[in-house]
Amino acid sequence: MKQFLKFVPVQLTFFLIIGILSGKYIDFQPTHLLLIFIFLTLVLLLLFVRENSQFNPSFSVLVFLISFFLGISSIIYKNQLNRQQHYSNYSEFTTNKTISGFIEIQKILKPTAYYTKYEAVVTQLNNKKTVGKILVNIQKDSIETPLQVGDNLVVKTPFLTFKGPLNPYGFNYKKYLKNVFVS
């Protein structure tokens, strides 16, 4: 067992996994993460050149740190909220004004007594290309034929955000959707 833990790929994988888990809870800006990664790589290269290609224990620490930050970056760069084209980054979206846009239905969700629910991708807002997923609620009386996966819709509506739970320690639907829709 001790031999297995001394195996370098196992150690690197361990730090990568720790970085991935930390990436869900530590909120880094993508540019800061890139600067940290470049800095650590440059320090590693400078130390390597300075030591004339001989092993130094600080090499291991730097490589493990790089592996850790690679794990964090795999989560941060996958998150569409960090992209400049995400629909929530547009000023029209933050003012809760009526916005015209194009959405594409991706998934049909379980309906409630009053609404049919869909998961959709926002492809365009006010003639600007966007990315990001939304939850679409349509009253059951308002359409006769249900929407299908792949349907494209032109919408003109305010985009509303969910409020947090009203009761302490209640189920936080906003947080749940944020975790589900991030991919």
Structural write-up:
With 183 residues, the protein is an alpha+beta fold. It has two domains: 77 residues; 73 residues. The chain is 40% helix and 21% strand. It contains six helices and five strands, in the order αααααβββββα. Strands 1, 2, 3, 4 and 5 form a five-stranded antiparallel β-sheet that branches. The model has no long low-confidence stretch (mean pLDDT 81).
Provide a concise account of the structure shown.
With 183 residues, the chain is α+β, with helices and mostly antiparallel strands. The protein has helices at 2-5, 8-23, 30-50, 57-76, 91-94, 173-181, and strands at residues 98-108, 115-125, 128-129, 133-139, 152-158.
Question: What is this structure's SSE topology?
Answer:
Elements: H1 2-5, H2 8-23, H3 30-50, H4 57-76, H5 91-94, E1 98-108, E2 115-125, E3 128-129, E4 133-139, E5 152-158, H6 173-181
Antiparallel strand pairs: 1-2, 1-5, 2-3, 2-4
